[in-house]
User: Fold O-acyltransferase WSD1-like N-terminal domain-containing protein from Allacma fusca.
Amino acid sequence: MPVNSEKIAIVLLTCAFPLILVVPITICTIFLPIWLLILALAKVFHPELEYVSNGFEAGLSHEKSLEPNVFNIASYHVLDGYLSLHIIRQMALENVFSLKKDNGQLLFRRLKSTITFFLGYSFWKVNKTFDISDHIRGCDSGSINMKLPNPCFEVDLSDVMRNLVVLPWKKAMPRWEILVLHIDRSSSNSRPQTVLLGRWHHSIMDGYSYLHLLETIFQEQFDFPTATPSNSPRPTFREYFQKLLPILRIPIDLAESICDGFNIHNRFLPKERNSRKSYYACISEPIDDAVVHKIRKKYDVGYGTVVVAICSGALKRVYDLEAQPFLDTIPSQVVFPVVGHPKVVANHFDFRPVRLPLKSKSSVNRLLETEAQIKRAKRRFLLSPIILFHAIIMPAFLSDILINCGVLARSSFVISVFVAQKSFSLGGCKVLDSAAMFTHTRCLVGGTCLCHGTPSRMRMSLMINKQLISSEEAVLKFSQFVREEADALLET
Assistant:
């Protein structure tokens, strides 16, 4: 919608906040008693079930969100040395599946569980036929075989992971796996390399949880950035007042969110819903983490801001190759870590709407505009906990609509960043390289970008719908454009 119309709509919706507030109150009044009754019935008649206590997971547990290539995450870690499949399985059995809570239940019970439904609500149920060999296996074993190049080098892993992330899951099996393969070195060094190809559905765990799973299997300690509690002195009256401001902005924030959902002019979305397998993918060449820190210090911006700005700048250059008019900004979801990520497999993060600036006078202007947008997003009252609570108490099909059409569908792009702060090892073998990829085509999101890696080899992955980019060659240029955007920020 035009800018003036959008401002008018925000003002009207802000004034109508008391009326809008009736909607969540009505939902709670109707579904909270039903939800409590369902929990009680499940406890009596199916004590083996564990209710889905996370609204994001509840929204992803519906059958439509469990389809192939919907909400899947994949990653690879290249290890400098040889680890046999048998040893990795034994380490997983001893270090992961033997851990128990105080009540005797498995600490990593979810890895043995699948989603089931009771009276329309989602529950976790342990798979009694669970076999570790179905989940930690070679590429040429199991129910799904994946062909690899022969010989297979590190440069082939991008195509391998792109194919892996969209493979269908076997029904009635927990949706996670770690594939172990051994690849050839492209250099004269004869030392073997082991690759861990991980794939999991987002309803089971997020990226940090997968890394913690690897930590537990191999008894290693990573150093990935997470949000930490503040140890600042007692806040002043002015600081207390500043903390109250986001609450006072709730009507405005809600109005802006609603406008984002209907702002078709500002969307970056495919037009058809039957294109869930139609996308291009590219993983960038590695970037030294020191480059990101130099840019961060030079312009006094956040680490995530630099990554997001480089990604959006590279995306803009990709679209420029299409020689078509493009958007000034696109509504996006940027994932932020939150305090106290549990040391189990779970989903524990915040996702905040950010209007990603694409068209800009220069790369530096885009960086500064991105910093302003991210700061603004962090100051806004976070509506997602309220929405996620409603997703918990509603039946699975309504939770699916609420999450996919009410939250994530407002965004055209999803960006997540998790990069190690120092080098790390797995099973005594140094991790030489890593990357991650995320499929998100359930609600017509135009593309996703994940930034993952080690300090010396950070990589960005781009997945974008084919209806938005007609040429795969343009998408493959993303890697080159990432480097050019980083150089432009350093040289300016």
About this structure: Confidence is low (pLDDT under 50) at residues 227-232. The chain has 16 helices and 15 strands. The longest helix spans residues 22-45.
